[in-house]
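INTERNAL AUDIT FORM
Audit reference: QA-55
Scope: verify that the stored structure record matches its stored sequence.
Auditor: D.O.
Record contents follow.
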Amino acid sequence: MTDPTTLSLTELGAAYRSGDLKPSEVTEAYLKKITAGDVYRVLTPERAHHQAKEADARFARGMSLGPLHGVPIAIKDLLDSAGEVTAAGSKVLAEGPKAQEDAPAVARLDAAGAVFLGRTNMTELAFSGIGINPHFGTPGSALDPSRVPGGSSSGSGVAVAKGLACAAIGSDTGGSVRIPASFNGIVGLKTTNGVIPTDGCVPLSTTLDTLGPMTRTVEDAWAMWLALAAKPFKPFEPQLPDKLELLAPTNVVLDGADDAVLEAFDDACARFEAAGHSVERKELPELQQIPDLYARYGSFASHESLALYEDMLEARGDDVDPRVAKRILEFRGRPSTDYLRLVYAQQDLVRDFWQRYRRYDAILAPTVAILPPTVDALKEDAAYFKANGLCLRNTSLFNFLRGPAVSVPCATTSEDLSIGLMIATAPNTEALSLAIAHWVEQNH
């Protein structure tokens, strides 16, 4: 029989319903493959066995809770799960108390019948697009272990790509689902701000934090998205207009991009056009306004993380990744009026942006402008911060704009590295962004 850990979420569900596989068998197969270390900070075999046995019993009675029922998944280590310490990649937080209950998003996955294998490593406090963690270890990219995995959901991305979890939940504040999805050759969905509750989640930016699925296929992302958003399940039946109206920005998102990324993006746009869809290439001045606002007023993540963690840095600064600490302190001392002006400017820009470009179905861009650098190349701070900025730049634009954005593999380099295409749509249109991503997946 095929190794069950190679099956997608959708394929596993079909095997369960046909009786070809049992959740307890599949869960055991996963638990034999995984260990605590660079990918998983901790494993949760007791809960996994309990959830799998419950799923066995329900399937034996002819009951199914939906597509996630009995599916082994990974939880990013910034979400509370009952009885576990939520470390969020932090040596300091790892010394804290165990969570008393599941975060709402975790509880929704539990109610959908998912099996929790363990808690995945991440960048400390989720404040980096690189994925390096000096406290608990850095998982190498699933496609080349010498390269960074992307962050901050590094362990979740690598777990899904390497068959160490069928799917995973990650968080995305500036690209933390989509960057590791791109670097590891999987699908990652940044969801509309506010749709999935972030209660019980260690915050970075209360304005920008979102949660979303990381999966092997777009259909799997659809199933995870519905469960996380507490929406009734319905089969994934993507429907697109005969002619998509797509917008490909020529400014900001292509600046400083690697040649392989530019070529992959051009090829992806050409495939849409060859199929009869429209791809308009033009400058979007609003995209430059976003980094300009951050330069003028400071970033949401820095302002808000400072309010959250300044006391921790003062008391335990030596126990915090200095590169993370530097970003938290970047705009320390700015007046509160700068933060408020940033809030008001975001409200205006988000409203105007989606109104101005409402005739387009989606905006296309490379998920990340560069290929994943090697870990060794980022030993010096200057190289690290330059790479981090390029990793986060494209994705963070659409965190600011608050709508859904999905990363889907669109090309493979001669070194077998994956390149992701980002598809961004207006707020509350996840179904459209995933439908377009499915088209890319089918025509890749």
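Auditor finding: record pair retrieved intact. The chain is about 40% helix and 15% strand.
Action required: none
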